[in-house]
Sequence to fold (76 residues):
Amino acid sequence: MYEKVKKLLVDELQIDPSDITMDAELANDLGINSLELADLILLCEEKFGVQINDDDIHKFISVGDVVNYLSAANVS
Fold:
C-alpha cells in the first residue's frame, strides 16, 4: 500500500520521491496544502474504491497515516 500511495503523491502531486517516507508529514515535510490534501483524498477514493469520511481527514498527518487508513479499510 505504501508504494501505491507514494506513486499517487509522485504522479499526481509532483512530490519528489526521495522526500516520501512513512514518517513524512504531508504538510510540514512534503508541502501539501489543504487543497492538495483534498485532491489526495479524492484520488485515494477513486483509485482504491474507498469512501473516506470527512471526520477522518484530520487524521492524515503523515504518509503512514494515509497508508494505515487505507490498509485498515481493506484496500488492495
